[in-house]
Amino acid sequence: SVLKGVSAQFDEGKIYALLGENGAGKSTFAHIICGDIKPTSGHIFFNDKEIHFETPKDAIQYGIVCVHQRPLLSPSISIKENLKLGQKKFDVPLAAKADELLHQWLPDRTMATMVKELQLEETFFVSLIGALLRNPKLLILDEPPFIPLEKLHSLTEQGITIIMITHSLK
Fold this sequence. Notes:
This protein is an alpha/beta fold. Helix content is 32%, strand content 15%. It contains six helices and six strands; from the N terminus they run E-H-E-E-H-E-H-H-H-E-H-E. The protein has helices at 26-33, 56-61, 79-84, 92-105, 120-132, 149-156, and strands at 15-19, 44-46, 49-51, 64-67, 138-142, 161-166. Strands 1-6-5-4 form a four-stranded parallel β-sheet, sandwiched between helices. Strands 2-3 form a two-stranded antiparallel sheet. Helix 6 (149-156) links the parallel strand 5 and strand 6. The radius of gyration is 16 Å and the shape is globular. 26% of the residues are buried.
């Protein structure tokens, strides 16, 4: 296995970076924490309790959400329709929050914009908006595009812990 003897602790409301070369196991670490991959050994503790995930949905229930480098969005539908996918209910308050987040992260786009019209970097931010709609406690950003530090701090001020996985010192 790629990861051996890994031990890490992340405090609430802080920003962390996992920096390393391609193939070093950074994304594998993220996939395990997000429930995408089952660990072959070891333990994961969250809020001092050992947790086990069968699926990413289990991780989301704990407030652990991952935004992957290449988000799985449907190009043939709008941003709004993509954000509705996987939500139990997309009611008026959630739609208002989605609008507010879209304005913050992609001010030049509207909910009606078709995903196929977006640049790759913009699709990451649509996926990030979808993650934020889930009210995460731990947000893992796998190889994110450049995000200004003040935007990240606005998330940590809400108590969100952020782990950025990157191979770039930028």
